[in-house]
Design brief:
The protein is of the alpha/beta class and 456 residues long. It contains 15 helices and 16 strands. It is elongated, with a radius of gyration of 27 Å.
Length: 456
């Protein structure tokens, strides 16, 4: 302490403390000798603290006794209150996974966490794009949306590895620190667990954190923090929540690899409490990102690397107030002979294949996978009676299997052919361009799958 107070810099203090009881209630510590247990009890820091504060005149023996009695009383009272609480109703087990709206049409707000409990007022939004003449790429749309939200909402903070002066490895935050300051756009250490842990604390304190995980695979070290964040509302019966937007670039780009080029979006569909957006173009990216940053739930915002500057994904800027509602798909092209359900970087490939076959093929871009637009898919497949699901993620346990199962369970007798999936085989994304092209669904294989279903 004296070392630090004298200005000599930080100090690392390593404390070795005894474990005074078993690991759990079932741990009787039979693996320790009586001598070991006695030695550990002799090192109990609480009696040593008592001795210190009394010898230094900080407390009297009577003060200590009163404090100890009060602590014991408070703990006993808390235990009593907990035991008197009624058992939870099993009918409510699926409640509060996400933010809910009551029967009066008003949101049932958590007591703490995020912007909504404090009555934060957002600017008006619209679902109708106010398109400008110039087309921009998805990267520019993301940067511009972050900029507008940082400007209109002082509680937004953007941070991650190299997002400050460098502007991020993909330049999504380029110039934002210069405009909004180091307190609102800043670099972090190379610790994904620390990045998300910091974001959870900020969200609980009433901010809107927008952390960036540099590449999809790098989110894995933060998985415990992400899982705990997603279940916070459910675990506390809507007392606490931590809304945030976690931006994660990923997916193939020219070449692949098992780290930077993963999609593996299905993992976030198993992460309870998280919304998941996977835009395919600049307009949807702007609308979904803004909607997520004003939402009362935590969101994974997946930025596909191959679409950030893709010519197909360029769109006019839709306006500073434009939002895309979560759970609302869009129809890329219409048809009545086959429905193709897809998302992310597979959307332009599916559209190209559908148009090359002469139309009559409906292509649906889900845009968000949690929630996903079941109604639009059901309506389309009920008309076309055939469905092809195309995604970049591995085929086994991919989200395409969930969609196929949903259709089979709900409109089995409307189907003229089994729902079919086209996805990557169960291998990592290869680095070699030729190998990557061999596993990622391409126009040739998508077209062949469409023809097979049309001829079934």
């Amino acid at each position: 302490v004296q070392h630090i107070r004298e200005g000599h810099g930080p100090a690392l203090v390593r404390l070795t403390v005894p474990r005074l009881c078993g690991h759990s209630g079932q741990d009787t510590q039979k693996y320790k000798t009586e001598m070991q247990i006695a030695a550990e009890q002799a090192r109990d820091p609480l009696p040593r603290l008592q001795e210190f504060v009394i010898s230094e005149g900080l407390m009297t023996q009577e003060d200590w006794a009163v404090t100890a009695d009060q602590a014991s009383h408070d703990v006993s009272a808390a235990v009593k209150r907990a035991r008197q609480r009624p058992q939870p109703d099993p009918r409510d087990i699926e409640r509060h996974v996400f933010s809910e709206t009551g029967s009066d049409g008003q949101p049932e707000l958590q007591q703490q966490g995020g912007l909504w409990p404090d009555g934060h007022k957002f600017p008006a939004t619209t679902t109708e794009p106010q398109a400008e003449s110039e087309r921009i790429n998805m990267l520019t749309a993301i940067r511009r949306t972050l900029d507008t939200e940082l400007t209109c909402n002082p509680k937004v903070v953007v941070f991650g590895e190299d997002v400050g002066p460098k502007g991020g490895v993909h330049a999504a935050t380029l110039g934002l620190q210069d405009k909004h300051g180091k307190g609102r756009v800043f670099d972090t250490s190379l610790s994904e667990e620390g990045i998300i842990g910091r974001a959870v604390g900020m969200a609980a304190a009433g901010l809107m954190p927008v952390p960036e995980i540099q590449f999809r695979k790098y989110a894995d070290p933060a998985e415990e923090q992400l899982n705990d964040c997603g279940t916070m509302r459910w675990r506390t019966a809507n007392r606490f929540a931590a809304p945030m937007v976690v931006r994660i670039p990923g997916g193939f780009f020219k070449v692949g690899d098992p780290w930077h080029s993963q999609a593996n979006e299905v993992k976030w569909l198993h992460a309870v409490g998280w919304q998941l957006a996977m835009p395919s173009n600049a307009e949807d990216a702007a609308g979904l990102l803004r909607a997520a940053m004003r939402d009362n739930n935590p969101t994974i915002f997946f930025e596909h690397r191959s679409m950030l500057d893709d010519a197909w994904a360029r769109r006019p800027w839709p306006g500073d107030d434009y939002v895309v509602p979560f759970g609302k798909a869009t129809t890329v092209c219409e048809g009545d002979r086959l429905t193709v359900v897809t998302w992310g970087a597979m959307v332009p490939r599916c559209e190209k294949a559908a148009r090359a076959l002469g139309g009559d093929i409906e292509v649906i871009d889900l845009r968000t996978l949690s929630p996903w637009d079941k109604e639009s898919v059901i309506e389309s497949v009920s008309r076309t009676h055939r469905c092809l699901i195309v995604h970049e993620d591995n085929i086994t346990a991919g989200f395409g299997g969930e969609i196929a199962a949903f259709l089979t369970e709900n409109i089995f007798f409307e189907l003229d052919a089994p729902p079919r999936r086209l996805a990557m085989p169960d291998v990592p994304s290869p680095h070699n361009p030729q190998l990557m092209e061999a596993v990622v669904p391409n126009n040739e294989r998508i077209t062949a799958a469409m023809q097979d279903l049309l001829e079934f």
